[in-house]
């Protein structure tokens, strides 16, 4: 079998495609480290260059490298890390931010690092871990060379700036990709720790559990041993949200208070899909809003279409675990008040990178054109974000 050929659809879950060897973890982490560092350096160079070339001040630029990326949610995470959820110095709607990232910020800050520097260190480590497991998934299930492609698609995704800035996306991906890697290899007890990381990092971790449950159903192994292992792994992965709910019940009187803060702080609450689409369409094609916001709403619509298309792609390939995760995530965001931050959300839908790697694995020209386009968009995203404009 040609190593560039996709494995047949009936390859058993948890098995390496015929004719291929398992990729060593050492190789995966080395490749991930190299690509994460090189792409990170490239995006940081773009940010620093933009800070100097587009400055409207006199004299040398006074922006520090780390300060360039400490925008928007970054300082909000830092205040949660420093003051907790209930202090008046913290954003009044801070419970919308799940606790693992602020806890790690606080721990690293105790070593003398600034909160922003700690956050960027966490995102670097998270990107390497997520990248290594993505590399393993692609190499073992798609073919030789696809791991590097999937890695590049993730690290140069149009919204990849959120894998550099002190945001929780990289930490979430580290848990989500690793959890699916172990699940697809029937190692359900190993799902517990990375699954818990994903759940403790972002509310979207609940959708990861949903997708993992479908992954178990897809494997169709109902032996007592497997049912117990999967139940233990998924149960342990759910513990962080249970603990967070208990904390919120104690301090707020509602275990699901983070939904209230999403509504009150970011105007996200459940509405019908038609209403959500209509509201976004009116904002995107109205003439009363700021130009950059109108453009952003239009990109939200494009991103929503891409997210739905990727979910359909997973369904057509009968990748039920991936499809369930993606469908639940897209359904939640598309039944909110309006479409908001969908381009950033797509960054977390890691099956997209695997699908793209499979699509380009036998077509070098596809890979080159796709990577050129995403790299340009990633650079634009870095410039917009680090210049202080709203970027999803």
Q: In total, how many domains does the architecture comprise?
A: 1
Average pLDDT figure: 93
Let me know the largest β-sheet.
none
- Work out the helix count: 17
Radius of gyration: 21 Å
DSSP strand count: 0
* End-to-end distance: 43 Å
SSE succession: HHHHHHHHHHHHHHHHH
Shape: globular
Q: How much strand content do the residues show?
A: under 5%
Q: Low-confidence runs (pLDDT<50, min 5 residues)?
A: 1-14
Structure classification: mainly alpha
**Helix coverage percent:** 55-70%
Would you mind describing this structure in some detail?
The protein is mainly α. The protein has one domain. It is built from 17 helices and no strands. α1 crosses α5 (115-141). It is globular and about 70 Å long. It starts with 24 loop residues before the first helix and ends in a 6-residue tail after the last helix.
């Amino acid at each position: 079998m040609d190593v560039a050929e996709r494995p047949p659809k009936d390859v058993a879950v948890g098995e390496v495609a015929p004719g291929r060897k398992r990729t060593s973890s050492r190789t995966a982490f080395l490749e991930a480290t190299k690509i994460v560092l090189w792409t990170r350096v490239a995006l940081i160079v773009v940010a620093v260059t933009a800070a100097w070339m587009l400055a409207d001040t006199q004299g040398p630029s006074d922006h520090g490298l780390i300060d360039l990326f400490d925008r928007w949610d970054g300082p909000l995470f830092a205040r949660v890390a420093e003051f907790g959820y209930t202090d008046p110095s913290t954003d009044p709607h801070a419970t919308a931010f799940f606790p693992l990232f602020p806890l790690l910020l606080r721990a690293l800050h105790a070593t003398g690092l600034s909160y922003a520097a700690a956050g960027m260190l966490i995102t670097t480590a998270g990107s390497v871990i997520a990248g290594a497991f993505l590399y393993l998934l692609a190499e073992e299930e798609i073919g030789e060379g696809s791991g590097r492609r999937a890695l590049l698609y993730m690290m140069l995704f149009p919204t990849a700036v959120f894998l550099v800035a002190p945001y929780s996306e990289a930490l979430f991906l580290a848990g989500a990709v690793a959890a699916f890697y172990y699940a697809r290899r029937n190692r359900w007890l190993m799902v517990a720790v990375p699954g818990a990381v994903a759940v403790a990092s972002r509310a979207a971790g609940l959708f990861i559990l949903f997708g993992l449950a479908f992954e178990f159903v897809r494997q169709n192994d109902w032996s007592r041993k497997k049912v117990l292992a999967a139940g233990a792994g998924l149960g342990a992965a759910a513990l962080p949200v249970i603990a967070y709910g208990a904390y919120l019940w104690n301090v707020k009187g509602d275990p699901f208070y983070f939904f209230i803060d999403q509504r009150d702080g970011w105007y996200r609450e459940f509405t019908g899909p038609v209403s959500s689409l209509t509201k976004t369409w009116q904002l995107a094609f109205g003439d009363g809003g700021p130009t950059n916001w109108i453009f952003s709403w239009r990109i939200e619509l494009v991103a929503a279409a891409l997210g739905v298309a990727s979910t359909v792609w997973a369904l057509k390939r009968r990748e039920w675990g991936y499809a369930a995760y993606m469908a639940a995530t897209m359904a939640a965001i598309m039944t909110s008040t309006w479409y908001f931050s969908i381009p950033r959300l797509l960054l977390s839908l890691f099956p997209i990178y695997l699908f793209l790697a499979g699509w380009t694995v036998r077509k070098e020209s596809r890979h080159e054109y796709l990577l050129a386009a995403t790299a340009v968009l990633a650079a634009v995203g870095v410039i917009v974000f680090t210049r202080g404009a709203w970027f999803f």
